[in-house]
């Protein structure tokens, strides 16, 4: 009898294949390339993706015997979950695999922006020893506003509390008492915008969160604001951020995610006070291993007709 076929459509940790074991035929393709993806998905039982592969209605329609879409990460915004469910295809993800890594990158971007790490590094390697030009600011005793106090937002809050920051958060789904237990004061978005010296966004991308931090919101922030988005591109409107930086209404930004990815040319790249990375939040050995193993286990269970527990 032939083995069920698992298509790995992106670079995943080697632990993924190990965790799948010998019971599957493993195929690979470049899922970001539609001309490769559409024929490759036609006759597989499961597909494993990160964020570059769009498993949309078209891809699902091309899949003749697909049973599982496995997202080796948290966000499901590159999978049409509704279309998958309608076609009887199960969607699984690894919701806790990379939360520590994502939180650590947000903190890294915040520190890098506050201390001009990227431009100082570039200048020094260019032969310039400029100390006063790159005078930064401390996080200590500043107020950080966390937008979205979910799994990652909480980890960021804990880490920044340890830096001696005052932590406030906006999250309509979290109760004030629960936040207070973590030493976090829940506020409205407007209050957060008015009070924050630093701000970090930790929301999923949904129709409600798209453009949540736009022109109107950036008009309300302090001019010393350091804004970090390591969640999803588009939650902070890139044009509005560009204008605010240009007009000096935002001091600096750390940007890991873009409205359209891959993004190798953004107007934001013109600013020395923007530190940018190519969607690296989940890109650690640890997170990739955890994500790969988690989705491999879910695929094994799903393809053998067993219940897939919520992670
Ligand atoms: C996530 O949603 O977990 C990340 O975007 C994962 C990734 O970068 O692959």
UniProtKB/TrEMBL annotation:
Function statement: Catalyzes the reversible oxidation of 3-phospho-D-glycerate to 3-phosphonooxypyruvate, the first step of the phosphorylated L-serine biosynthesis pathway. Also catalyzes the reversible oxidation of 2-hydroxyglutarate to 2-oxoglutarate.
Name the UniProt record assigns to this protein: D-3-phosphoglycerate dehydrogenase
Enzyme Commission number(s): 1.1.1.95
Molecular function per GO: NAD binding; phosphoglycerate dehydrogenase activity
Pathway the protein acts in: Amino-acid biosynthesis; L-serine biosynthesis; L-serine from 3-phospho-D-glycerate: step 1/3
Reaction catalyzed: (2R)-3-phosphoglycerate + NAD(+) = 3-phosphooxypyruvate + NADH + H(+); (R)-2-hydroxyglutarate + NAD(+) = 2-oxoglutarate + NADH + H(+)
UniProt KW keywords: Amino-acid biosynthesis, NAD, Oxidoreductase, Serine biosynthesis
Protein family membership: Belongs to the D-isomer specific 2-hydroxyacid dehydrogenase family.
Entire-sequence positions represented here: 1 to 311 of 529
Source organism (scientific name): Nocardioides iriomotensis
Gene Ontology process terms (BP): L-serine biosynthetic process
């Amino acid at each position: 009898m032939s083995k069920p076929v698992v298509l790995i459509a992106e670079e995943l940790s080697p632990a993924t294949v190990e965790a799948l074991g010998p019971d599957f035929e493993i195929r690979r393709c470049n899922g970001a390339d539609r001309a490769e993806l559409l024929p490759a998905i036609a006759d597989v039982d499961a597909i494993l993706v990160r964020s570059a592969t769009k498993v949309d209605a078209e891809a699902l329609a091309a899949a003749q015997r697909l049973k599982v879409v496995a997202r080796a990460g948290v966000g499901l915004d590159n999978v049409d979950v509704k279309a998958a469910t309608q076609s009887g295809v199960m969607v699984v993800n690894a919701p806790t695999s990379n939360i520590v890594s994502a939180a650590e990158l947000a903190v890294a971007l915040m520190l890098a922006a506050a201390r001009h790490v990227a431009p100082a590094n570039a200048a020094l390697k260019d032969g310039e020893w400029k100390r006063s030009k790159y005078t930064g600011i401390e996080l200590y005793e500043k107020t950080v506003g966390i937008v979205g106090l979910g799994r990652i937002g909480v980890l960021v809050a804990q880490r920044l509390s340890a830096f001696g920051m005052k932590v406030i958060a906006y999250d309509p789904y979290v109760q004030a008492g629960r936040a207070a237990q973590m030493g976090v004061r829940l506020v409205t978005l407007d209050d957060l915008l008015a009070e924050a010296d630093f701000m970090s966004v930790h929301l999923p991308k949904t129709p409600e969160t798209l453009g949540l931090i736009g022109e109107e919101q950036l008009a309300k922030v302090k001019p010393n604001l350091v804004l970090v988005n390591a969640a999803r591109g588009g939650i902070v409107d890139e044009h509005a951020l560009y204008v605010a930086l240009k007009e000096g209404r935002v001091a600096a930004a750390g940007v890991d995610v873009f409205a359209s990815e891959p993004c190798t040319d953004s107007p934001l790249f013109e600013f020395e006070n923007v530190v940018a990375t190519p969607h690296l939040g989940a890109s650690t050995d640890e997170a990739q291993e955890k994500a790969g193993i988690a989705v491999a286990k879910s695929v094994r269970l799903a393809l053998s007709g067993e219940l897939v527990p919520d992670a």
